[in-house]
Amino acid sequence: MRALRRESLGDMSHPSYGQKNCLPTDLGSGYDAMGRIRAHLTKSRFTQDQLRAYEARDRNLAESNCTKVTTWSIINITVMLVTGLIQVRDVYFPSCVAQGLR
């Protein structure tokens, strides 16, 4: 069985082994194949450039939104802290204005 396999594979040490089906029959078909490969690479590059532009736009939008959210969060926290401090102060130190309203 092993001898049969060797015979069917041919002489693997010969330099031309496996090159029969890999090389084009003439240079024209090789140039055509290279042209198709170049076209596919160009299309891939164009698609990657588009995706890169979308990613940059989305990243800039996300960073802008993050800045806005952070700013408004700081403002809201500051207002809540000031309101809380005023309410606590009024509980422990009632002012004259608050007593006059009662």
Task: Describe, in short, the structure shown.
The chain is mainly alpha-helical. The chain has helices at residues 2-9, 27-92, 96-101.
Please describe what this structure looks like.
This is Transmembrane emp24 domain-containing protein 1. It comes from Portunus trituberculatus (Swimming crab). Keywords: Membrane, Transmembrane. This protein is an all-alpha fold and 102 residues long. The protein has one domain. Helix content is 78%, strand content 0%. It is built from 3 helices and no strands. It has helices at residues 2-9, 27-92, 96-101. The N and C termini lie far apart (110 Å). The model has no long low-confidence stretch (mean pLDDT 81).
Spell out the blueprint of helices and strands:
Elements: H1 2-9, H2 27-92, H3 96-101
The total count of helices amounts to: 3
> What is the total domain count?
1
The main β sheet shows up as: none
The SS-based structural class is: mainly alpha
Binned strand content: under 5%
Low-confidence stretches: none
* Shape verdict: rod-shaped
Count of β-strands: 0
Query: Which bin fits the share of residues in helices?
Result: over 70%
Distance between the termini: 110 Å
Order of helices and strands: HHH
Mean pLDDT: 81
Q: Measured on Cα atoms, how large is the radius of gyration?
A: 39 Å
Region (Disordered): 1-21
InterPro entries: GOLD_dom (IPR009038)
Domain GOLD: 32-89
Protein name: Transmembrane emp24 domain-containing protein 1
